[in-house]
Write a structure and sequence with these properties.
Layout (H helix, E strand, L loop, with lengths): L4 E5 L9 H13 L5 E5 L6 E2 L10 H12 L3 E5 L4 E2 L2 H8 L1 E4 L2 E6 L2 E6 L9 H10 L2 H26 L13 H11 L4 E4 L5 E8 L2 E8 L8 E5 L3 E5 L11
Helix pairs in contact: 1-2
């Protein structure tokens, strides 16, 4: 673990067939110096569901990069989001991914780390909770297999428009529910909580339950080109604009 270098990112919302955006992210991942572990924290794709025998078309550029990374020994963790879920054993085998349908728990150095996309952070968002349960139900997955990837992709685009999905909105600040959600995990014994979904990069110290921890929100690749890195020397660092860290080592 001493030589490990982790990269955490989320919310790229890559569209099918958008080879320019996919190519930019693919180059960033392939060229990332010293990368040993990649953790995708949900919504890498604008809409992606795993199929038993088929695959959703239009994401070949980015998927090829994931296969290249794991082929050269990079460990891939994929925490599913509200736009990419039920990826399943076919995806895991094809891209060498360790799938986490709800959250991942890690130990980096001496710190216990909780990684979750964050779409369930706000208990008042009843519709989000309903959609999460409904889309992951056995009936929905059987229906998806029946209608196939192409029609399901069209349904996903329609649903975005119909619900006014949050990643198309410009926000100045993140909802306080994300910090509160992180505080709950810190009080439960975690040292670092990493979320996405808010589309606002954040790095905060949180005190809860008599404990002091750290809350990091990955922001998004979509607009901020933000991500988090970890190595044994610098610890966790938040980066924006695809480059220099905006938080010092700590």
């Amino acid at each position: 673990m001493a030589d490990a270098r982790w990269l955490f990112l989320s919310d790229a919302h890559l569209a099918p067939g958008d080879t320019a955006c996919q190519g930019e992210l693919a180059r960033f991942l392939r060229d990332f110096p010293g990368l040993t572990h990649l953790c995708i924290n949900g919504d890498l794709f604008d809409f992606f569901v795993g199929f038993r025998r088929r695959e959703m078309a239009g994401f070949e550029t980015l998927l090829a990069a994931l296969r290249d990374l794991t082929g050269r020994g990079v460990t891939l963790h994929y925490v599913e989001g509200n736009h990419d879920f039920c990826l399943g054993p076919r995806f895991a085998a094809a891209y060498g991914a360790q799938l986490h349908p709800d959250h991942a728990t890690l130990t980096l150095g001496t710190q216990r780390v909780w990684v979750e996309h964050g779409d369930l952070a706000n208990p008042a968002e009843h519709l989000a909770h309903l959609f999460r349960w409904l889309f992951r139900s056995r009936a929905a997955l059987l229906l998806a297999e029946f209608i196939g990837p192409a029609r399901l992709q069209r349904f996903g685009r329609w649903l975005d428009r119909a619900t006014g999905d949050a990643h198309y909105m410009v926000r100045a600040t993140a909802h306080p529910c994300f910090r509160a959600h992180a505080a709950h995990r810190i009080a439960a014994g975690y040292d670092v909580v990493i979320l996405g979904h808010a589309h606002i990069p954040s790095d905060e110290v949180v005190e809860a339950g008599g404990r002091r921890g750290r809350y990091l929100n990955l922001g998004d690749w979509l607009a901020h080109r933000s991500y988090v890195t970890w190595d044994a020397t610098a610890g966790f660092r938040l980066h924006e604009d695809g480059g220099a860290p905006v938080t010092p080592p700590r």
